[in-house]
Amino acid sequence: MENVYYYNTKIGKISIVENGAAITKICFVNKDELNVEGNETELLRKAIKQLEEFFEGERNCFDLPLAPKGTEFQRKVWSALQEIPFGETRSYGEIAQIVGNEKAARAVGMANNKNPIPIIIPCHRVIGANGKLVGYAGGLNIKEKLLKIEKDYKR
């Protein structure tokens, strides 16, 4: 059984979902969805506490069990994203090389787009080859905020 809870954060409204053992999703929420009933568990409280610490520059890595659902390739990309150091970025092409297929930059972009646990699996750290911000499920304004948090608090 999945549990979900909704939170107001520094970057906007989000929902966090867990399956009883691990975090499975983080979603950016529009205003209408925020009134949905949820079940706040200990794991969800731990997740929001760590996210709030991240937003305040007090945490640069997460210590949470994660269970993202995706294809083998997507999971490989998401694993590579977790290796990008706090405060740094990589291009889609660089991630493609890391996962062993230098021609898969577009596929990396699609895997990034399907990342079910943004922020914790830091897809916001992936940028275009020209250094420009491109694509983000929460919108480019949130991607920019997340990168600014990391730049301002890089240790």
TrEMBL record:
Residues 6-68 form the Methylguanine DNA methyltransferase ribonuclease-like domain. SUPFAM superfamilies: Methylated DNA-protein cysteine methyltransferase domain, Methylated DNA-protein cysteine methyltransferase, C-terminal domain. Its main location: cytoplasm. Keywords: Cytoplasm, DNA damage, DNA repair, Methyltransferase, Transferase. One of its GO terms (cellular component) is cytoplasm. PROSITE patterns: MGMT. GO terms for molecular function: methylated-DNA-[protein]-cysteine S-methyltransferase activity. It is found in: Cytoplasm. Its EC number is 2.1.1.63. It catalyses: a 6-O-methyl-2'-deoxyguanosine in DNA + L-cysteinyl-[protein] = S-methyl-L-cysteinyl-[protein] + a 2'-deoxyguanosine in DNA; a 4-O-methyl-thymidine in DNA + L-cysteinyl-[protein] = a thymidine in DNA + S-methyl-L-cysteinyl-[protein]. Residues 72-151 form the Methylated-DNA-[protein]-cysteine S-methyltransferase DNA binding domain. The keyword Glycosyltransferase does not apply. The keyword DNA damage applies. The active site is at residue 123. GO terms for biological process: DNA alkylation repair; methylation. Belongs to the MGMT family. NCBIfam families: ogt (TIGR00589). Involved in the cellular defense against the biological effects of O6-methylguanine (O6-MeG) and O4-methylthymine (O4-MeT) in DNA. Repairs the methylated nucleobase in DNA by stoichiometrically transferring the methyl group to a cysteine residue in the enzyme. This is a suicide reaction: the enzyme is irreversibly inactivated. This enzyme catalyzes only one turnover and therefore is not strictly catalytic. According to one definition, an enzyme is a biocatalyst that acts repeatedly and over many reaction cycles. This is Methylated-DNA--protein-cysteine methyltransferase. It comes from Clostridium diolis. The gene is ogt.
